[in-house]
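Treating backbone geometry as a discrete language has practical consequences that deserve illustration. No coordinates are needed to read the tokens, only the vocabulary itself. For completeness, the protein is quoted in full, as a sequence line and a line of structure tokens:
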Amino acid sequence: MTISSELLIGLAAGIAIAVVVFFILRGRALMPKLQNTKVSTSDPRVEQLATRVGMLEKQLQLTRTDLEQAVVSMSESLRADIKLIQMQTQSVRGAAETDVVDLAVRLAREGVEAEDIARRTGLPKDLIESIRVLHNSG
């Protein structure tokens, strides 16, 4: 369950970043075409258009900055979520490993054979032998 959650979070982040990069690069590709156009200042309509293009460029820059900040914020949030999921997964694994070792110790104290403990716990036989030597009451 946690692995699929991590993959889903990573996929969502990747898609979001790809969309933002697409719009940023798309805006960059369009702007040089507009900037390289020669403007005749004798016609007031051309001047108005040039002014509007300038305003659009400023707006695009602000939008680009906002999008970049949103991506950074989303990325930080996703990193925090992934870190939390990893910590939870490690905690569950650690608890499971402790339970297995506790079971092996209990079985060794009861005098259960090493092969049977290995079959029940999945622990290596050398570790089980060490547990039996330390905890065997007989």
Notes: Helices lie at 2-35, 44-109, 114-121, 125-135. The mean pLDDT is 77. The two ends are 43 Å apart (CA to CA). The chain has one domain: 2-135.
